[in-house]
## 1
Amino acid sequence: MLQHTAPGNPCPELQYERVAGGGARPCLVFLHEGLGCIEMWGDFPQQLCAATGCPGLIYDRAGYGRSASLEHPRSIHYMHEAALAELTHVLEALIPGQDYILVGHSDGGSIALIHAAERPPQLKGVITEAAHVFVEAITLEGIRRADAAYEAGKLQGLARFHGDKTPIIFKAWSDTWLSPWFAYWNLEYLLPSIHCPLFVIQGRDDQYGTLAQVDTIVGKVAGPAEAAIVDGCAHSPHKENPPRLLSLMGAFILSLGDRHHRRSIRDLRS
């Protein structure tokens, strides 16, 4: 059952919601995409928690959804700030001392990798969906198309989720990625520090990244890792084929206790 925040919120600057689950299971912590929020996950978090028996935690990062607005311009380290300061604060305030598994989409996946590189003892696994660890031409082209659509008034639906923060958060996303200095952003150096089990998911037709992202992540982390390349999906497989993603993610989560978890790359077809 989904529980909304109440008076006495230990994270008053951030909006969050909980999903009930088994007390002995790790908490699934959902990290949304670069233009996402709690609402834009739909009911996927609840379904994944129900399938695995895990409790869940979903929150709007600063500037998104119903959380407070951004307080300063973004730098090349904005995902590091989200991973090492904001996410750490959320975990300490809301699930202190509890085991958890990160489920990150796009920017959220990259944030999950940065966080995992710190090797927090309660982190039991990471699932990334359409994560980036370096900048590609296809990524920038996709963002340019989205930016043109926004300027043409074709993305007005975002205001339903972000309200009057929409222009700020959209431009924070597009302007940062399209800035010349962001071309040098790269997370490959931290991948060998990741030791926890990792599951890397990407749609075969992802308009924001190639399968080189998947190969790099799985090939450079130090811990057990596997990947699923899902046919018939683009940048958001959990929206495009929810049953398949629930099956893939659920199986990984339930397998985390298996000492024989294998390192492999698999092409999984819908």
Note: The mean pLDDT is 92.
## 2
Amino acid sequence: MHKSGFVNIVGNPNVGKSTLMNLLVGERISIATFKAQTTRHRIMGILNTPDMQICFSDTPGVLKPNYKLQEQMLQFSESALEDADVLLYVTDMVETPDKNADFLEKVQHLQVPILVLINKIDLSNQDALSSKVEEWHAVLPKAEIYPISALHRFGVDLVLERIKELLPESPAYFDKDAWTDKPARFFVTEIIREKILLYYDKEIPYAVEPVVERFKESDDLIRIEAVIYVERESQKGIIIGHQGVALKRVSTEARRELERFFGKKIYLQCFVKVDKDWRNSERAMKQFGYDLD
């Protein structure tokens, strides 16, 4: 008997979805930072065993969109409700169920198994957790609820075992050596964006979109040229920094991470360009790889 299926991960920004995804897959697929709205795309990570293939899908956080990019991010999350064999709704000890009432109403009507994962329980106590479990039972009475701590990996293995039990019998959807559906260039842009999220404050990281212009691989070296697009000239100056110091730091840290990721020497050049208000431009978003159809 072989099992395969799609396990889609949804929830608000900054509740630990990406960290959980990486733990479940056993690979560093999604970038995970302390800042909200880290994930912009729907990212698949594939876990293969001899008798099973689990296709995990990490989606952007559910939010009320303020510009076209966020509208697209919300569409990614809503699309995850349509093709799930198992849905993981990730929350934490701070979030209340009424925060995304419209989205949760759609979740309520799903006919697939729903697991509500209450993350960050290490930051709370038993009484607060019991109260939080009751809150989520009232909103999603058909859901199974699992308290977890992705940071300390508490409860994650239990969730994975339950997912394996719930998967339908099916042949594999992807080759057994596949671990994601994204190309190499995608992970280059994600790693550069992660470093920007870590090193810059306020609005800057959210106004940035890295694009790989050149990716040339040989046996022992990958040469990469990337453009970091921003919305305004002032942002360009901040990304570059005085005498280019800030951009050099981002490039150096990204190169080191890329060398760990690909297991090869990396030559990385980063440039900064302005594409005015690209987050509200359908032309720019299509150019940057967002599917708006």
Note: The beta strands are 3-11, 43-49, 52-58, 86-92, 114-119, 144-147, 209-217, 221-230, 265-274.
## 3
Amino acid sequence: MAIYKIDTNYNVKPFVAELMNPTGIAFDRAGQMYVSSRFDGTVYRVAPNGTMTSYAEGMGVATGIAFDRVGNLYVGDRSGTIFKIAPDRQTFVFATLEPSISAYHLAFNPQGDLFVTGPTTSSYDSVYKIDSHGTVSNFYRGLGRPQGLAFDVDGNLYTAASIAGKRGIVKLSGPAKASLEVAGQGLVGLAFAPGRSVILATTGAVHHLSWNIQGLPLIPE
């Protein structure tokens, strides 16, 4: 499997060609790219030329990854563990969740809390909130197969999920406030882009959508 790079002119080319089951991608504050592999439970650091080096091993079925403001890397092992890797590469068990049948997806809100989705065998899944001490709470329950997620600058959470039988991008503006903002079959992920726009991923394509929403930067500030 390969990781593809899409430039601002929508040109597509392979970037990393020899990584088994690449699953999660994150960037640190310096813009360095990291990729998890659920095949071997390793997080790789990827240079601008596509060269890979191992950053952390033994992450179970490594899926979603995300950095906090101070450079700690969080890795979701879909068998039920969220690992925390300090900048010196010391590794800790940060939190435990119900195992996911596919992958965990991770994102930080503006206050520094970690939010996690992870589809289970239930059709009534949760979005979890984990505070800085690793305490897990149920932020919202009632979504079908929630996957990718991203925050806007106001702290609203958007996730690719089903709600009330409709698939799309669901906005969670609070623990009891959910609304379908974009409808579309096969949506599995999203990321906010410059110019008040969003990148939407389906199971077979990537789409660019103009949207009057300012996204929270992927790289912590």
Note: The longest strand covers residues 166-174.
## 4
Amino acid sequence: MTTPTTVPTGDRERIELVTTRLHTAVLSDVIDRLGFRDQAMDARIRPAWPGAVIAGRAHTLLTADIFEVRPDPYRKEIEAVDSLKPGDVLVGATGPSTRTCLWGELLSTAARARGARGAIIDGYVRDVRHIEAMGFPVFATGMKPVDSAGRSEVIEYGTPVACGGVLVREGDLVVADIDGIVVVPRVIEVDAIRLALEKVDGEDQVRDAILGGATLAEAFARYGIL
């Protein structure tokens, strides 16, 4: 009898396990099996620099476009970044706006200082060369050099947002790599991680069988994994 896979109860240990053992494709597969078939963000949100990988808890932020420079334009943006906790991922929903640029080097620096693990922006970012140099993982739809003042403002944070076509709630597990971004709802998180770990082990067996001479059909018939 196979011993059930144990998922750590500690948040830090759980996120570390996801970071080191899992990837978005396998998580997407098991989330599908659990009945949540729309948890992968739009493919237009890509790593801002090669090799960026993120796993952590969503800390959500919502912006709206504006068309005038207002007093104290960064107040809520600063509040949102300063409220990040260790293990958080800033998930910024902009509409998605093509007018503004939400994220840059100084926000990345502040987020890292708070213990955040990355930022996912359904919109534009800037200062990418500096962000890459500091190794802070950021995903975005593109780059634009403009400032947000007079173009957009944060209207709320810590509330559900639609980012990349997925409803993201505060505290959801968010995983991002070269294949894309997956949001794991808390209600299925333990089962999703357990099933994903089991699938990774099964994929290793399928790979070994194929390398050992089995056809793909034979390996699939034996393990039921593709």
Note: The CA atoms of residues 112 and 128 lie 15 Å apart.
